TrEMBL record:
Belongs to the RutC family. Pfam families: Ribonuc_L-PSP. It comes from the Bacteria. InterPro entries: RutC-like_sf, YjgF/YER057c/UK114. GO terms for cellular component: cytosol. GO terms for molecular function: deaminase activity. This is RidA family protein.
Length: 135
């Protein structure tokens, strides 16, 4: 594996992600922001943040599999959530956990979560983009 995830001493352990990723592979992969669309472009989980987070992560897994990778190769996630408030964290983490169960691992690379006013379609509650490094 080309990625080592680290929580440096002197920084808090967040639990939902690691503070640092060290990538040693040779192929850098950028995945466009994924929304809760299925393969036919139909929104999954309309109005359900956990379901949409799960679908976004599964879409990232699908994109990575296409280029010979997996979530284990992700070095950074950026998550955009419409009308974010801290009370939504449990729904966000539920979606991540459901996706992790289907992906066969726990996706905990460094990440940034940003609250936004809206995304490109009013039924989308979350968008997730990823950067990965493959051997």
């Amino acid at each position: 594996m080309a990625i080592t995830l680290v929580d440096p001493s002197g920084l808090p352990e967040v639990g939902a992600y690691r503070q640092v990723s060290i990538a040693t592979g040779s192929k850098l992969v950028h995945i466009a922001g994924q929304v809760a669309w299925d393969a036919d472009g139909v929104t999954v989980g309309e109005g359900d943040l956990a379901a949409q987070v799960e679908q976004c992560y599964l879409n990232i897994g699908t994109a990575l599999a296409e280029v010979g990778g997996s979530f284990d190769d992700v070095v950074k996630l950026t998550v955009y959530v419409v009308d974010w408030t801290p009370d939504k964290m449990s729904l966000f983490l539920e979606g991540v956990a459901r996706a992790a169960a289907k992906l066969g691992g726990t996706p905990v690379p460094p990440g940034t979560l940003l609250g936004v006013a809206a995304l490109h379609a009013p039924d989308h509650l979350v968008e997730v983009e990823a950067t990965a490094v493959l051997d």
